Amino acid sequence: MVAARRAWLLTAAGYNLAALVASGSETFRVLPAPCDGCFSEPLEVDYFGAAVGSEPPRASWSSLEDGGRAAFEEAARLGKVLIIENASSGTALAGWTCEQLAKEFPDGRMRREYDWVANPDDRNLQTMGTQKWIEAQVAGEEAKNRVKQDSKAPPFAPFYWGVREHRGGQVGSKKVIKRIQQLIASSVPKFMDQGNSASMFDNAEFWLGANGTGARAHMDSHCISTLSVVLSGERRWRVGPVPRMPKGAGRSKDGDVFFDDGVAYTLGWKPMFEFTVRAGEAVLFPPGWIHETLNIDETCTVALTTQFDLPRPVRYWRNYYGRLRRIGDLGPCWKEMRSYGSLGALKQELPADVSSLRAHAEQLFENRIGNFSEQERDFYDVDADGSVGKNEFVDTFVAWAATERAINNEKATRKLKPDMSLGAPGTHSQEL
Fold it and tell me: Per-residue pLDDT for 276 more than 80?
């Protein structure tokens, strides 16, 4: 059993973000569960609210300012994909260009991506003050193969200023780090919890480059949601959900990464959304989404991509638990996911038969006396009414336990067999 609050309300003008916080339920088509009693998963095109190949729902600055924080946080909890207009309005980094970064941080150090032969250790060899990089169009390693596999793959390699690596002292001096930390702290959008300042700095990456540069389709191992803001220029995005992992698809071994460079293309990846993000706009997406970017402005494009802690995407974890717990790219998140389902008792041995398991869940609920952490409540509050009832707790706990058992029964392998389709064969409808 899975759940999600009403996600999007279509209007004549487009998507109404206020529907995110409306009460009520939504009927989604549901993919077949991989085992008896396991979590089912919503059909992706229903849950994420658009047809394949379209752009995600958009929210304007005014809609986020007028009660928009609650709507934004609900979107993040559910793992929604969203384009946010005027997201950088009023922030310290709004409008920053490649030239301005080079002028303000001449001693900043970055690297060109896909430079494995010349720079196998990913050292930050490029100083920002040397401005030739602003117009550079250099094909990275394997570029011809990637474009052959997918004609829309970016032909040239972008530059990456990994501020998130600041503790290693390889991205700039202490003065540089202090200054960029201050700028990021003053660039947390108004619709976000300002407590996200620290996590946005610790996860910050600046993606920079001329027309035709971009990041190839890949999956990151982040366990929290991503916000990517275009400060200047223009980027085309192609993104798609974590692929389906039906019974028999296997599960990754601990520490394995599956969706490394080029893998999505070789598997025939077709993105769910294809869209353009312009200067001042941002895109929100959840952990595990395969994504690709292409700088399409005539001049150099600057994007700040980062992750944030508040709120954590727990409802998304629950709604797509089976696939997220099988793909090794998200291995760093597995302990956290299991902690919500187990209420922190990761090593507990659970009864094998359903009746005993339900009795165990009932006792767990009674012992809690309604005391759940915010994340545990998000995981077990299936009807999203702000509280956890006994029946929804017991039903969800039993489904979680069945899903964990099925995952552990899958063969651990490096040769996963994900289902890359987004269609609706074999689905049925269920109110979530």
Answer: yes
